[in-house]
Amino acid sequence: MAFSCPNIQQEIQTEESDERVDPEERKKLKRPYPFPSTIENNLNDEIIPEAVDVLDSIFATLCSFSENSSTCNDISIVEKTNNISSSKKEVEETKSDEIEIIGDNDYTNVSVKTDDQTENVSEPFEDIYDFTNIPIQVTGAWKEFGKGNNYTRGCKWAPDGSCILTCSDDNILRLFNLPEELWDFAKWQDMPEMEAVVKISEGDLIYDYCWYPLMNSAEPSSCCLASSSKHTPVHLWDGFTGKLRCSYRAYDQMDEIIAAKSLSFDADGARIFCGFDKTIRVFNVDLPGRNFETRQTFAKKSGQSGIISCFAFTSQNRSISAVGSYQKTIGIYSEPDGELECLLEGQKGGLTQLQFSPDGNLLYSAGRKDPEILCWDLRNLGDVLYCLRRSCVTNQRMYFDISRCGRYVVSGNNNGIISFWDTYEESKALACDEFSVLKPIQFFLGHNDCVNGISLHPTYPLLCSSSGQRKFPDLLSEDEDGMFSSRVIERDNSLRLWWIGKCS
């Protein structure tokens, strides 16, 4: 697996600041985690010293683990001497036995079938996380979003984990490489602030953006991303150079270009699904231009109405797709014909995000100005399995993410807190009037503003978060003569990188 984009700085010129890092800015990088400004003077700038030896051993284990992993859901064998039983030697010596390797999203099972017994050796991804301690802030990006009201609008790890994609109010998509200093714990204290290596400018407000699901830095042709902005067609961008590869143009009945309000690749990366008012348009990735399939989601007073706001696909079941609408409904469609199978209702706000669990059995949904993340069991549709509650009082998209093992769910809150839930503790859920509420197992103050972006690294115990929201000047009257002054507005428009692995 590649964790950096080679020759990317030679292919595109980036804006680099000649200014020296301010000492106060340097303090931000040394904190184990951020605190409110009222107690910043009491911060201890040292990262937890007891974690040094443990993190070194974890990094060594994870690096060897990453080399054998694939981001395209390929088969991988994870070896870790602490959890493999003594019978491993017998497995290696039995060359004549039938060996079956089963790959899935959670972990890889190695089943060795003999005449007498069948042995399973498994290495779950859930073991790399540790939520008993406060996450350690490794580094972040502040200057990229520090001008004016340039708040972030989400962050997304690349499918291969090599870089982070962000969107902000200045209509620019930024790519940040994974810091090279991350692999040397001794350099964590002096790790520099992250700077964007690629900047992609759109002409107007960016509605939605997403990675190509099979993106791999080792294959430059797969390094691309799609975006949709106001009054423009869907654009496919090169992840190395930031140049436009092609466009997918949707036209209405007046033969005018209309912008997609949402978009997503399917699980295979062969098609792009675009959401419009009561309509879905599907493009083949290899056929740019105006060739598309039109699906009406609402006709003859039946179906799914409203603007199609989000999509979800799963590689475990390519015969279905989930579609969200701003009219608070979730449609389950059959593929590839696009027939509506059922309609789910229960979200209190318009849908802003849908995501399947790695095994494809559960569907998580979140809404606009809705404090509940609902979990639906596709094997028993109709009732909500449980809900996860957060603070969400803003109209913008507030993302959540699910770990690769499917056990943990992470989400930000409007007050800057980041919450973690363990879905295996469903039995401890509190019974409420409507749904069972799952309590978070950990939460901490990650930002000083609304946390709108959350993304878990596909392989390592790393979490990236982004924050910010639109704020307007607040005028205060000072005297009777009509003299006004603006209140100082506190903003936290930033991207932060956290270590959520084992520290003790």
- Strand arrangement within the widest β-sheet reads 25-26-27-28-33-32
Q: Which consecutive residue ranges, at least 5 long each, have pLDDT under 50?
A: 1-123
Mean pLDDT: 78
Question: How many distinct beta strands?
Answer: 39
Rounded to the nearest angstrom, the distance between the terminal CA atoms is: 28 Å
- Rough outline: globular
Helix content: under 10%
Strand content: 35-45%
Rg measurement, Å: 24 Å
- Class by SSE composition: mainly beta
Main sheet: strands, sense, barrel: 6 strands, mixed
Protein name: WD repeat-containing protein 79
InterPro entries: SWT21/TCAB1_mRNA_Telomere, WD40/YVTN_repeat-like_dom_sf, WD40_repeat_dom_sf, WD40_rpt
Family: Belongs to the TCAB1 family.
Organism: Trichonephila inaurata madagascariensis
Describe the protein.
The chain is mainly beta and 504 residues long. Helices cover 7% and strands 38% of the residues. The strands form eleven sheets. A six-stranded mixed sheet has the order 25-26-27-28-33-32, with no helix packed on it. A four-stranded antiparallel sheet has the order 4-39-36-35. A hairpin with a 4-residue loop joins strand 26 and strand 27 (372-377). The longest helix has 17 residues, at 51-67. The radius of gyration is 24 Å and the shape is globular. The two termini are 28 Å apart. 40% of the residues are buried. Residues 1-41 are annotated as: Disordered.
In short, what is this structure?
With 504 residues, the protein is mostly beta strands. Helix content is 7%, strand content 38%.
Properties at a glance:
504 residues; 4 helices; 39 strands; four-stranded antiparallel β-sheet; SWT21/TCAB1_mRNA_Telomere; globular; six-stranded mixed β-sheet; mainly beta; 38% strand
